[in-house]
Amino acid sequence: MNKSSFLRTLLTSSIVLSSACVSSASFADTFPVTVTDVAGRTITIEQQPQHVALSTGRVFPLLEIIYQQEAVDHLVAWRDDMRLSAPSMYASYIKDYPELADVLKIGKIKSGEFDAERFINMENKPDVFVVDISNIALAREKGLLEKLDTAGIKVIAIDFREDPIKNTVQSVTSLAKALGREAQGEAFADYYQQHVTALAQAVEKLPESEANKKVFIERAAGYDGSCCQTFATGNMGAYVPFLKATNIADKPLKGAITGKMSPESVIAARPDVYIMQTTGWIDKQGNPTAGIPLGYATAPNASINDAAIAKATQSLMDRTWLKAVNGYQSKDVYSIYMPFYNSPYNLVAMEYFAKWIHPEQFADLDPEKTFEEMNQRFANRQASGVFGQNNFDAMAQEAPKKMTERVAQ
């Protein structure tokens, strides 16, 4: 593949983006507006919404892309899942927006914890409720959609997890339009689509030797000590065929989005690339529990987090059966920041996958730079951290410390 051609395509993306980042006034947002969400539902908004609720707190970056620093002023309720499932993200946002700690907490729709009456009668009643597409059918069956609509609360479905490549842009643009912030949505869409198109064009030029590399994704690596939950057709599994690779879970899962493979079956499938989807989970008291603490850089001393990442990585890599996997033998074992699976920033994960599956062809890709740039351009905030790694490189970071300890003894 011609690397300079690939870089020119990305440069074109930046030029297009610059022309797209215009003020929202140029779109002359007027109400009422009608939008179609990713669930195919048509929603009419009579007046510009001011109050927004999120069925999952982890998609707060979506609200920030639309409102920038004013996002916290419009958020009136959310589920308290970011704090436990994406603690570094929570720490980063709480640092910038301390008010988030006081936002009303709501329950999970799927578990039946969502209190519709309390939600409808809250002091700052939401104008719009942003709901993950996986909850829409259940909310309809329970009569929740009709109940909320009667109360004047419009439900808009989003999806970054079931079919991310297809639905990310529409998720952002439909909500942005519904909130009277169409310009912000379109600027993000232009950037995202240009980058995805650049990836697709580069993949089309891959040599035959790069076709059909075998990939395995370990879901929530380290979360409960067992193996191997995985994804096939959806979630991050969607990136694999997009990059002209083969997901070894496709056949065993028989069409299911997610399921489990045994370590023996993973070894037998001989994956060329092994990717751990992980992060540093905590318990309700805030104590670290499991996983590799990839994510946002929030510690004053970055080396502290580097050491924690190296130690957790070593623990997962020490599983005896893993050493028999093809990818381990070729040192192609990687880790990706798990919360990207439900984020408008999933483009960053796609770029990591491209580098790991086709390292020579995508050597010039810099996913962490993409993440920092997206935060700066669309959310108007500074964000950095460790969001992807080669596990062998990460373990090497711990080696000097272990050597020092041995010498001291």
Summarize the structure.
The chain is α/β, with parallel strands linked by helices. The protein contains 18 helices and 18 strands. It has a five-stranded parallel β-sheet with strand order 5-4-3-6-7, sandwiched between helices.
Walk me through the structure.
- The protein has 409 residues and is α/β, with parallel strands linked by helices.
- Helices cover 44% and strands 16% of the residues.
- The chain contains 18 helices and 18 strands.
- It has a 5-stranded parallel sheet with strand order 5-4-3-6-7, sandwiched between helices. Strands 10-8-12-16-18 form a 5-stranded mixed sheet.
- β1 and β2 form a beta hairpin.
- α1 runs antiparallel to α10 and α16 packs antiparallel against α17.
- The longest helix has 23 residues.
- The N and C termini lie far apart (51 Å).
- The N terminus and C terminus are likely disordered.
Q: What characteristics describe this protein?
A:
disordered C terminus, five-stranded parallel sheet, 18 helices, globular, alpha/beta, disordered N terminus, 44% helix, 409 residues
Mean pLDDT: 89
| Total helical elements | 18
Termini Cα gap: 51 Å
Outline, from the CA principal axes? globular
Sheet bearing the most strands, described? Answer: 5 strands, parallel
Strand content: 15-25%
Look at the helices and sheets and give the structural class.
Answer: alpha/beta
Q: Rg, please?
A: 22 Å
Q: Please tally the β strands and state the result.
A: 18
Spatial strand sequence of the major β-sheet: 5-4-3-6-7
Residues in helix, %: 40-55%
Spans of 5+ residues with little confidence (pLDDT < 50)? 1-28, 399-409
